[in-house]
Design a protein that fits this description.
By secondary structure, the protein is mainly α. About 70% of the residues lie in helices and about 5% in strands. It has one domain. Strands 1-2 form a two-stranded antiparallel ribbon. Keywords: Membrane, Sugar transport, Transmembrane, Transmembrane helix, Transport.
């Protein structure tokens, strides 16, 4: 049964290549067309696309993470309410992307994605149970809210954790999702201890 499911899944790079081949005669494509092409892997792939910019050095520009973090909030809510297909507002669904730019991004990222994909495969499928998937949505919602906040030097961490969740969802890889949860818990403890220490320091200084 699992073997059958594994065969039906298409790799992230192959999906992107299929989109390029299908639209090679077009000058642009819409977000709606991308979501349709990604199929049941749309949630994970769109999450990765929006989280990637926040994992780059340019994310230190004020307001940059807010622009790309807000759509992740929207997608996380989809997962929490167990919506099986990704719905986009008409205006967003009709937003057009230049095909040449899309191809350029795919060509630049494909070598890295190919390396990552060698580590990805459907496993630990209990992570794909509906109740557990809703928990993924809750954690990603919290991470995306954190991404919107001006927490110093944390955008890269939050975005990287969101990307791990995206990869795990896209490829139904429970091991990657486990690492995403582990990273989120560890960094959560770190931020909690750092905040607690800062509060204690300020209270001692005031007294």
């Amino acid at each position: 049964m699992n073997k059958k499911k594994n065969k039906k899944r298409t790799s992230i790079c192959d999906l992107l290549q299929q989109v390029i081949e299908k639209h090679q005669n077009d000058t642009s494509l819409t977000y709606g067309e991308l979501v349709k092409a990604f199929g049941d892997q749309a949630f994970g792939l769109i999450i990765i696309l929006f989280a990637l910019p926040s994992a780059l050095p340019i994310s230190i520009i004020p307001g940059f993470s807010f622009i790309f973090g807000l759509p992740i909030v929207f997608i996380a809510i989809h997962i929490i309410i167990a919506r099986r297909t990704l719905w986009l507002p008409q205006k967003l669904a009709n937003h057009r992307v230049e095909f040449s730019k899309f191809v350029e991004v795919v060509k630049k990222t494909t070598p890295y994605l190919r390396r990552i994909e060698k580590l990805l495969k459907p496993r630990w499928l209990f992570f794909t149970y509906p109740a557990v998937e809703r928990l993924h949505g809750v954690v990603m919602l919290l991470l995306s809210f954190c991404l919107l906040l001006p927490i110093p030097f944390s955008n890269f961490i939050f975005a990287s954790l969101i990307i791990l969740f995206g990869l795990g969802l896209a490829e139904k890889d429970g091991v990657i999702l486990f690492f995403a949860y582990s990273g989120a818990i560890l960094y959560g403890f770190f931020l909690f201890n750092m905040t607690e220490g800062l509060i204690n320091y300020i209270s001692r200084w005031l007294t």
